[in-house]
Predict the structure.
Amino acid sequence: MITDEQVRWIALFFLFSFMDEKAALMAAASATAQFKGQPPTPGPLVDESARRVQMIRVLRKVFESNRKLLPRNRPATIPGSVWKIPEGLDIRAWSKFQKDSSDGEVISVVLSKILGFTDYEIAEGLNISIGTARYRIGKGMRQLGASVRARA
Amino acid sequence: MSKQRRKLTPFLCQEMLYDYATDRLDAERKSAVDEFLKQDKECREILEGIHKAIAYSERLAETEVSTEVQTHLKESENIVSLGRRYSSWKEWPDVMRWAIVCMLLVISIAGVVSAVPWKRLSALRQQKQSDTIEVATLQGPNSDQVFSNQEMSEADAAAAAVEGSGDEEMEGSNDGAGDEGAEAHAPPPPTPSPSPAKPVKATPTPTAVAAVPSSAPAPTPEPATKKDSKTKGFVYRAFMNLTNLDEIGPKITSDIEQMGGEKAGEVELGWKRGTGRYYHFAMPESNEEKLLERLRAYGPVRISKDPHPRIMPQGQVRFILWVESTGN
């Protein structure tokens, strides 16, 4: 089973990571199907946290297989019918950050700051150390801050 | 000794700014960053940007995905998810589950129906029914002496307890009636051999004088037609119970001879066997009724006309008469 919240996470992850409607929805559909096909695995984490780590692993896998298909410098093409950005928010700051930053930093920021995963879950899901996860998030936030300040 | 504090570089301070902004630094590091921020404008701008980025990302987190997209994504399936979905019986659609249950039920019923030997069962049932078919009853001179088929069957079975092999008629009779057990209603077959008598399985299929059953070995009796009796031959089998057999026995022999009867087997007329006497003879057909009248004068006669492979000459009939003594 998959919850509405989990579907939303998957959709937002690929929309913000790819900033391309077609590629994002295709990857999200693939990730949703894969996540539905995975039974919860037993582990030291509590069920909910373990399931979130499972989701991050699926997201990373689908991201890596789809990212290479996307050209780096392309304009953001996400119409308003797909998502609803909070009113008054300038999405161009995010677009600039998404183009200028590395994939690891972008997905770390998305997972941590937009989807709300913990550093430990991100580290487990991306198969990196928790220090690396924090470093990527910090660096990403500095770059995002620079983009936001530049747009202000 | 006093420990000298290491001075922060701009690089180290910038690396720690995110943790500073999210309050993850210990007190010592935090005070060091505080002091450095007072001196470094660039770091202050970066910190400001981080705060803005945190606020920006918190707002981005409020982004909603359209319902259509969510519905589309939720219905996304691949082979693995489909396999997992349908691996549990409870997850199957009701229609499919009921269809499978019905199909299994139908297959089970078809298997049972095909496994049961219906032909054999119907044959057994017909055989059971044919065991006691009342074809006719014969009435002797005394009107109160009416023999049912059942009585005839019992008497025949008793008579059949005497098995003989010397009389060719008995052998022929057995052959003609087949091996299915339906022929055992024949009168007792006497044998000149000293071998002890063996009981013969007796399954009564009485036949009236006017009806000749089929000689086929099938267990179901078929009413024979006149044509059958003419083409296949027949033999009269008669049975009597008499109290004073020692006295009447020679008279019967005499009567048979007077009516032109001659012994047909190897033994003489009135051959003694156990408590009964055996008469196997051929005689002119014209005297058949007269002989029966004389026999009825001694006591009730049960008679049946049975098919037989041996065909007698025109105008001749063959009798096998068994007279059982009921007296002490």
Chain A has seven helices and one strand. Residues 4-72+88-151 of chain A form a domain with the Butyryl-CoA Dehydrogenase, subunit A; domain 3 fold (CATH 1.20.140.160). Chain A touches chain B through 48 residues (CB under 8 Å). The mean pLDDT of chain A is 87.
